[in-house]
Amino acid sequence: MTASTTALTAGxxxxxxxxxxxxxxxxxxxVSKIRGRFTDFSGKLVVGEDGSAQADAEIRVDxxxxxxxxxxxxxxxxxxxDAENFPVAxxxxxxxxxxxxxxxxxxxxxxxxxxxxxxxxxxFLGVNAGMGQGPVAGFEATTVINRRDFGITIDMPxxxxxxxxxxxITLTLGIEVVKQS
Length: 181
Known about the structure:
Layout: E1 11-15, E2 21-28, E3 32-38, E4 41-47, E5 53-60, E6 64-65, H1 69-75, E7 88-99, E8 102-111, E9 114-128, E10 136-146, E11 165-179
Antiparallel strand pairs: 1-4, 1-11, 2-3, 2-11, 3-6, 4-5, 5-7, 7-8, 8-9, 9-10, 10-11
Pfam family, one: YceI
InterPro entries: Lipid/polyisoprenoid-bd_YceI (IPR007372), TTHA0802/YceI-like_sf (IPR036761)
Family: Belongs to the UPF0312 family.
């Protein structure tokens, strides 16, 4: 079966974490990028009969993985996510706009106790009948945030100028949602 661009039907659609990815990348030593992901997250999209939509998500920040245990442990500290005091990052949509066959979603993103507005450019990949669990819809989204806007201001300067870690964080989401019965 192939996905269609049929509009999402009214109801609650929840993130399928097994078939979804929440990833990030950041400049490292100003010459490369470190990539990572979060492995524990959830969320839902509620589509109204009138076509309106609401969405929210939660991310367990202690699930961060860059495939380097030492770096991951540092990311969980107060230098970055402060997972002990703020174990969950959240996103709550505040507005949806249609952009051709895709969407732009504005919302409030909270990390380590700081909330800022973000805009997600979302590619709608379509709806499929699924594999016996109900309809499935797919999306890909990206946004760029500045870590300093969220109070993550650790500086690790290099001896010859520059910094170990960049300020801009690219968030990339590959999301499948399943319609709840």
